[in-house]
From TrEMBL:
<dbReference type="InterPro" id="IPR010918">
    <property type="entry name" value="PurM-like_C_dom"/>
</dbReference>
<dbReference type="GO" id="GO:0004756">
    <property type="term" value="F:selenide, water dikinase activity"/>
</dbReference>
<keyword id="KW-0067">ATP-binding</keyword>
<feature type="domain" description="PurM-like C-terminal">
    <location>
        <begin position="188"/>
        <end position="362"/>
    </location>
</feature>
<dbReference type="Pfam" id="PF00586">
    <property type="entry name" value="AIRS"/>
</dbReference>
<protein>
    <submittedName>
        <fullName>Unannotated protein</fullName>
    </submittedName>
</protein>
<keyword id="KW-0711">Selenium</keyword>
<keyword id="KW-0418">Kinase</keyword>
<comment type="similarity">
    <text>Belongs to the selenophosphate synthase 1 family. Class I subfamily.</text>
</comment>
<dbReference type="GO" id="GO:0046872">
    <property type="term" value="F:metal ion binding"/>
</dbReference>
<dbReference type="InterPro" id="IPR036921">
    <property type="entry name" value="PurM-like_N_sf"/>
</dbReference>
<dbReference type="Pfam" id="PF02769">
    <property type="entry name" value="AIRS_C"/>
</dbReference>
<keyword id="KW-0460">Magnesium</keyword>
<dbReference type="InterPro" id="IPR004536">
    <property type="entry name" value="SPS/SelD"/>
</dbReference>
<dbReference type="GO" id="GO:0016260">
    <property type="term" value="P:selenocysteine biosynthetic process"/>
</dbReference>
<keyword id="KW-0547">Nucleotide-binding</keyword>
<dbReference type="InterPro" id="IPR023061">
    <property type="entry name" value="SelD_I"/>
</dbReference>
């Protein structure tokens, strides 16, 4: 995997004795998100609805009233700022790659709203007694992602903490006509996912020492890829509905889209792209118990509350659909008339795993808004 970065090539033999970052945290990356149900309960206690002082403004286009991937604030009749923050714990052991992945993940929310990153601030928690050269590599990896995004790294904040954590505050800009929101999907729109699933499972396998090298490399390549091309394609196609797939997995984030749009979604599970490297597959790692706890919580909540109907899918396939992604792809709602053009542009721009995986439909008496159904089919 040395081709993925420069810093590790310059290490001496003593680097082998450095601690493994994934062993310094009970979880990894976006799999550490608080459960959706818990957040809903807590936010309901503190007042985030219309009329609450401090949560309203004529310029606030997206805020707490309809929570999305980022806040959006109008700066004139044509443009708006996008403001977001994201940080997490290590998903790989290499400090440089973790920094790059964490920063790429944080900037994804800007792309998920249809925007372009402008500025970034580091968010860092680090143990005082942990190797400073490792910290420098984390920050260098983060800087690389920000530079690749065409943004400026302008500062940050750090604290002493026994568990390493890293991420960014991201500020971007979007033309208001190109804004993507979770509620922007329309009845009949097809669903495109731009990156393969499985990085949460691979990250857990890394932590347990079970991950094949080929799958690790495939996961890292996916996680360090910015969602810039996908956002560019969405803007050119004037799409309106989208989100990124992160800690709540494809299932959880698709549920958010269907609920916000007042629609139902059907997934064709056999069309969903999944990480693979030769004979090594994510399915093998699920069998070995490498699904993150956060993924299991998401699936359990989806089944217990009834908004997910798995249609006879095997348990392991259901877990894959709920796999907690760090720096996952965009999930886009695309009108059928332009889906071939959008898919071609995604592939030509480097998002080679992008695939049509399902469709939005109108609610019925049997399926209320927010329902996600699935079948072992292709589309």
């Amino acid at each position: 995997m040395s081709s993925l970065h420069e810093v590790s090539l310059q290490r001496d033999d003593a680097s082998a004795a450095r601690p493994r970052l994934t062993q310094l945290s009970p979880g990894g990356g976006c799999a550490c998100k608080l459960p959706q149900a818990m957040l809903d309960d807590v936010l309901g206690m503190i007042g985030t609805t219309a009329g609450v002082q401090g949560s309203e403004s004529a310029n606030l286009l997206v805020g707490l009233q309809a929570p999305d991937d980022a806040a959006v604030y109008a700066i004139d009749d044509r443009r708006a700022w996008i403001v977001t923050a994201d940080f997490g714990t290590p998903v790989v052991d290499d400090p440089y790659l973790w920094g790059r992945i964490a920063a790429t993940n944080a900037l994804s929310d800007v792309y998920a709203m249809g925007g372009r990153p402008l500025l970034a601030l580091n968010l860092l928690a680090w143990p005082l007694d942990l190797d400073r050269t490792m910290l420098a590599e984390v920050l260098e990896g983060g800087r690389r992602a920000v530079v690749d995004a065409g943004a400026l790294l302008v500062g940050g904040h750090s604290i002493d903490d026994p568990t390493p954590k890293f991420g960014l505050v991201g500020i971007g800009e979007v033309e208001r006509d190109h804004l993507l929101t979770k509620g922007g999907a329309c009845n009949g729109d097809l669903l495109i996912l731009t990156k393969p699933l499985g990085v949460g499972i691979v990250s857990t396998a890394i932590k347990r020492g079970l991950a094949p090298a080929g799958l690790v490399e495939a996961a890292v390549e996916s996680m360090i890829r910015l969602n810039a091309n996908a956002a560019d394609v969405a803007r050119r196609a004037t799409l309106r509905g989208g989100t990124d797939v992160t800690g709540y997995g494809l299932l959880g984030h698709l549920h958010e889209m269907t609920k916000a749009a007042g629609l139902v979604a059907h997934l064709h599970a056999n069309s969903v792209p999944v990480l693979a490297a030769g004979a090594d597959t994510v399915a093998q790692l699920i069998v070995e118990g490498c699904a993150p706890d956060g993924s299991r919580r998401t699936l359990a909540h989806a089944l217990s509350t009834g908004w997910f109907e798995p249609g006879g899918l095997p348990d392991n396939t259901q877990l894959l659909l709920a796999d907690a992604q760090t720096s996952g792809g965009l999930l886009l709602a695309v009108p059928p008339a332009i889906v071939d053009v959008v898919l071609t542009e995604l592939h030509d721009g480097g998002d080679r795993a992008a695939a049509v995986i399902g469709q939005f439909t109108a609610p019925t008496p049997e399926h209320k808004p927010g329902t996600v159904t699935a079948s072992a089919t292709t589309i």
